[in-house]
Specification:
The protein has 339 residues and is α/β, with parallel strands linked by helices. Helices cover 45% and strands 15% of the residues. The strands form two sheets. It has a six-stranded mixed sheet. A four-stranded parallel sheet has the order 5-4-3-6, with helices on both faces. Helix 8 crosses helix 10. The radius of gyration is 19 Å and the shape is globular. It binds pyridoxal-5'-phosphate.
Length: 339
């Protein structure tokens, strides 16, 4: 299937709907200075510039997730994340613009107690749109907390729609399967053929969706994800579940066994949410050479991995590579004391 129309129609006829949060393609450009430096054409898909709520990859997932919430006649959306979750911020903002009440359950999972981490960055935007924020400890009680919160609202006659961490499930992953059509249209317009794509992974939805999208388009692409979670297996499992779930919707069961999942754990650093010196150096370098700001939690680590792997010869010399910039700009301000 090569046409976006066909993709959209197939989903609608199978009961998967989408609301329109994004009205324009995000920019796809070459990083000229870096391409010269590494002697390889490197392009960037600026999903950090998607048009709502200071941008980010979660908006593509929310197009499908919030459509499902509407179809279920929910009035309230609950989601969960780390205190500086970009996903929580975009759920709050997109949710509000679509008329939902929004509750964010924010786990204290990153051991940073600076004022900027606790109050700045995404939190400022969460508060501007009046999301209900619930701070909880990182002790495994999140599910119980969410179930109690849901019951509380339901006894008041409300209808709650829950979005899992990162918006990563089969429905959310559809957003990134769809994004591969946007990428291919832009690549064609630029006269480039991407056979290598690199991206950050944190909960598997972006990675799983991109893999599924290229399977649906029947194009062989080497997709390299750089994990930001020290624990690799659960992310790999989730990624497969999402890819396979989407392939099922498109009746591509026989493709499943052929897929290679590439999830690299070499650039995680010491923990989720903690950048290391390399991460910070990468952020500074891209900002100074290209004017592009990566974030310290996801894209700073993934881009470090990409550049290092190019230097190690893991990507074929001279072939164009696309890095998907998944966002996190607002989160950068929570790390003000690191720069
Ligand atoms: C959530 C997020 C990711 C990871 O995407 P997943 O689909 O959760 O793997 C990458 N980059 C940024 C900036 C994010 O906010």
């Amino acid at each position: 299937m090569k046409e976006l129309n066909g993709f959209d129609h197939h989903l609608v006829s199978n009961g998967y709907h989408r609301i329109n949060l994004l009205n324009q393609a995000s920019p796809l450009l070459q990083l000229k200075s870096l391409s010269k430096e590494l002697d390889t054409p490197i392009f960037i898909k600026r999903d950090d510039l998607t048009e709502l709520g200071t941008g980010g990859n979660k908006l593509r997932k929310l197009e499908y997730l919030l459509a499902e919430a509407k179809n279920q006649q929910a009035n309230r959306v609950i989601t969960i994340g780390a205190r500086q979750s970009n996903h929580a911020r975009l759920t709050a903002i997109a949710g509000k613009t679509q008329g939902f009440e929004v509750d964010l359950v924010l786990k204290n999972s990153v051991p940073l107690d600076t004022e900027s981490y606790q109050l700045n960055g995404n939190l400022v935007l969460d508060n501007i749109v009046d999301a209900n924020i619930h701070e909880i400890p990182n002790d495994g009680t999140a599910n119980a907390f969410i179930s109690n919160l849901t019951k509380h609202y339901e006894t008041e006659g409300e209808k709650v729609y829950f979005i899992p961490v990162g918006g990563s499930n089969i429905v959310g992953g559809l957003g990134y399967a769809r994004a591969t059509f946007e990428i291919e249209a832009q690549a064609a317009a630029l006269g480039v053929n991407f056979q290598h794509i690199a991206l950050a992974s944190g909960s598997g939805g972006t990675h799983g969706g991109v893999i599924a999208g290229y399977e649906i388009q029947n194009k062989k692409v080497f997709i390299q994800a750089y994990n930001v979670q020290p624990d690799r297996e659960p992310i790999l499992t989730e990624t497969k579940l999402i890819t396979e779930g989407i392939l099922d919707i498109f009746n591509l069961e026989e493709e499943k066994s052929k897929i290679e999942y590439r999830l690299c754990n070499d650039y995680v650093g010491e923990a989720y949410g903690i950048p290391n010196e390399q991460t910070l150096a990468t952020i500074k370098h891209l900002a100074k050479t290209e004017g592009v700001f990566l974030d310290p939690v996801y894209t700073g680590k993934a881009f470090t991995g990409l550049v290092n792997d190019i230097k190690l010869g893991k990507y074929p010399k001279g072939e164009p590579i696309l890095f998907i910039h998944t966002g996190g700009t607002a989160g950068l301000f929570a790390y003000s004391n690191w720069f």
